[in-house]
């Protein structure tokens, strides 16, 4: 290293340490102001943007200090700070809590969203600035983004180990009666500046040893690339199974969109790990895996979009579905580009390069839209839900007024105020009652089964209304079929011959038998099989469940304990032996009569 390089390194090190120290001091001052409820925490739209900018914007000069010229870096940092402040001001203005404006009203999603936006945007700006053109060679984007990713991971790990060592030191000194170190590291005035400074130190150390960081990056990419064939096989196997299983099991998960988008994201990351800077891998397995994965993205994204469409069509928009819609758009862009790259002849997967750049820009624009009034998830969700209510798609007594009051920020509260003057009296009354609430109330959780999706046999039978209406919180039978959300198949038959149906819930290789009494439905018996391979679901679907002829018997009493006498079966033959039907204790059933 010559004198000029050494001076440049020292300058960068001092600047990074200063940035880290200033960031830590600002965060501490903001923390103290918020704790004491003094200015700027009392300024409605100032505190939140200051906090977001203090947390995220310093990452830009830390990353670009030794690579970008001073003037462009200052301009880009100022632009990034302005953009982050605008998004934070909007989040503070909307106010997630009633009457709350400022940092306390910021949605938790704002912080990672701003960090992700600035990370993506920075890796579009810095390579272009380095070559003096609007678009840099793709290899520059790849090198910078993945190197900074490795650098960020190493810096976070370094900072974490720093705190582990301080905690260990404090514990050791406390063993000999010195607790000053533990008190010091627990003070916000120390740990906030110390954390930011040590992170800046880690960035400087990894920047000076950029070759080592690239080595770590290379190892990580190689390992990820060889996971691509496995992920491709999993995705292909999943899609190949759908014609045989149908889509119903996928919809039953109630998380189909999230799972499918997660699979698409893994494929995108692993394809990029194999592609890297565009140099064709030497192994044919990686080449063909990348091509197949690019094609598999298309049906996976289409399934995710269809699953999301079904939920929105049934229940309207929610903030989660708006975010999912944004992810579907990004996934669709990648699917189109990667699918074309997989099929296009010529240079291997070359279309992947413009696809990545275009989708990076699209991600930046989508994030800006989601955290401004243009595409604010709360605004879109409120409009969707209120429209469904006014159109009669949802009954006034089933509408979630609390969502408008407590979970949709300013947009929801303004919509609730409008509903208070709704021409429909019930809507106006419920809106007024909810608007008057100071805190969100939660209905007690039920422990009952998912009756809406429970299959009932024989065909034509229905569960008794009293069975469905019962509060299963009071059930002490410990039947797994009465836990929250369970969908055990139900067999509705008159087991004891008294002319009133019992309910048998199928769990595992047997049934829990429930009978109505003066204190409600209670589990009174079990019917279980010890034979292997008993397929209760198949038997119920085939209509093969039936009752044996009633068989008189007496139980054996040992003290106060009742021991039911069950006839021994004749092995595990296909035909049930006589007397092997469901028996209820004699003290809760009348004398059996022929049926």
Write structural notes for this entry:
The N and C termini lie far apart (99 Å). Helices cover 59% and strands 6% of the residues. The protein is globular and about 105 Å long. Helix 5 crosses helix 6, helix 9 crosses helix 12 and helix 16 runs parallel beside helix 18. The strands form 2 sheets. It has a 5-stranded mixed sheet. Strands 6-7 form a two-stranded antiparallel sheet. Residues 574-595 have low confidence and may be disordered. The protein has helices at residues 3-36, 47-56, 59-64, 70-94, 110-131, 138-175, 180-185, 188-208, 210-225, 228-245, 248-252, 256-275, 284-315, 319-343, 352-370, 377-390, 401-407, 409-419, 425-435, 465-469, 536-541, and strands at residues 456-457, 490-493, 502-507, 510-517, 520-528, 556-558, 561-563. The longest helix has 38 residues, at 138-175. With 595 residues, it is mainly alpha-helical.
N→C terminal distance: 99 Å
Compute the CA-based radius of gyration.
32 Å
Q: How do the SSEs run, as a string of H and E?
A: HHHHHHHHHHHHHHHHHHHEHEEEEHEE
* Cross-sheet strand order for the largest sheet: 1-2-3-4-5
Bulk shape: globular
Structural class of the secondary elements? Answer: mainly alpha
Helix content percent band: 55-70%
Task: Tell how many strands the DSSP assignment holds.
Answer: 7
Number of helices: 21
Strand content: 5-15%
The main sheet comes to:
5 strands, mixed
- Uncertain segments: 574-595
- The average pLDDT value, as a whole number, equals 88
Oligomer: single chain
């Amino acid at each position: 290293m010559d004198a000029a390089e050494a001076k440049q390194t020292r300058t960068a090190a001092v600047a990074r340490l200063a940035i880290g120290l200033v960031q830590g001091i600002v965060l501490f001052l903001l923390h103290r102001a918020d704790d004491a409820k003094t200015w700027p925490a009392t300024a409605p739209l100032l505190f939140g943007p200051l906090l977001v900018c203090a947390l995220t914007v310093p990452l830009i000069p830390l990353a670009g200090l030794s690579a970008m010229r001073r003037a462009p870096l200052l301009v880009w940092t100022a632009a990034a700070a302005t953009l982050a402040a605008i998004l934070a001001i909007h989040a503070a203005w909307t106010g997630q809590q009633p009457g709350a404006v400022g940092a306390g009203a910021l949605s938790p999603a704002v912080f990672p969203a701003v960090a992700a936006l600035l990370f993506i945007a920075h890796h579009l700006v810095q390579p272009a600035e380095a070559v003096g053109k609007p678009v840099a060679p793709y290899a520059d984007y790849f090198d910078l983004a993945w190197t900074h990713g490795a650098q960020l991971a190493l810096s976070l790990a370094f900072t974490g180990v720093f705190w582990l060592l301080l905690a260990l030191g404090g514990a050791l000194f406390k063993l000999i009666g010195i607790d000053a170190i533990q008190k010091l590291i627990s003070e916000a005035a120390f740990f906030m500046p110390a954390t930011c400074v040590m992170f800046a130190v880690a960035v400087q150390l990894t920047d000076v040893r950029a070759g080592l960081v690239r080595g770590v990056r290379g190892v990580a990419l190689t390992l990820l690339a060889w996971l691509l064939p496995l992920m491709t096989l999993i995705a292909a196997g999943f899609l190949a199974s759908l014609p045989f299983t149908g889509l119903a099991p996928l919809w039953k998960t109630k998380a189909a969109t999230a799972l499918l988008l997660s699979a698409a994201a893994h494929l995108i990351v692993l394809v990029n790990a194999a592609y890297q800077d565009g140099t064709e891998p030497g192994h044919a397995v990686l080449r063909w895996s990348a091509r197949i994965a690019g094609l598999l993205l298309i049906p996976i994204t289409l399934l995710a979009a269809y699953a999301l469409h079904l939920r929105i069509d049934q229940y309207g928009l929610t903030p989660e579905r708006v975010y999912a819609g944004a992810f579907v758009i990004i996934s669709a862009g990648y699917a189109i580009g990667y699918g074309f790259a997989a099929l296009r002849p010529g240079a291997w997967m070359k279309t992947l390069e413009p696809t990545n750049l275009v989708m990076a820009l699209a991600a930046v624009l989508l994030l800006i839209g989601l955290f401004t009034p243009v595409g604010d998830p709360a605004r879109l969700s409120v409009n969707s839900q209120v429209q469904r209510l006014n159109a009669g798609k949802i009954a006034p007594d089933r509408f979630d007024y609390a969502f408008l009051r407590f979970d949709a920020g300013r947009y929801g509260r303004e919509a609730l105020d409008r509903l208070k003057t709704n021409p429909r009296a019930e809507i106006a009354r419920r809106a007024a009652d909810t608007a008057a609430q100071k805190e969100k109330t939660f209905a007690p959780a039920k422990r009952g089964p998912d009756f809406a999706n429970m299959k009932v046999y024989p065909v034509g039978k229905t569960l008794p209304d009293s069975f469905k209406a019962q509060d299963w919180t009071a059930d002490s039978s410990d039947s797994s079929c009465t836990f929250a959300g369970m969908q055990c198949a139900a067999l509705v038959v008159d087991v004891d011959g008294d002319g009133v149906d019992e309910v048998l819930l199928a769990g595992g290789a047997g049934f829990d038998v429930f009978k109505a009494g003066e204190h409600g439905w209670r589990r009174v018996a079990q019917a279980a099989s010890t034979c292997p391979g008993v397929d209760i679901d198949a038997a119920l679907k085939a209509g093969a469940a039936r009752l044996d002829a009633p068989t008189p018997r007496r139980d054996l009493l040992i003290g106060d304990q009742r021991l039911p006498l069950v006839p021994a079966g004749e092995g595990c033959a296909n035909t049930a032996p006589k007397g092997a039907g469901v028996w209820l204790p004699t003290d809760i059933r009348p004398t059996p009569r022929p049926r």
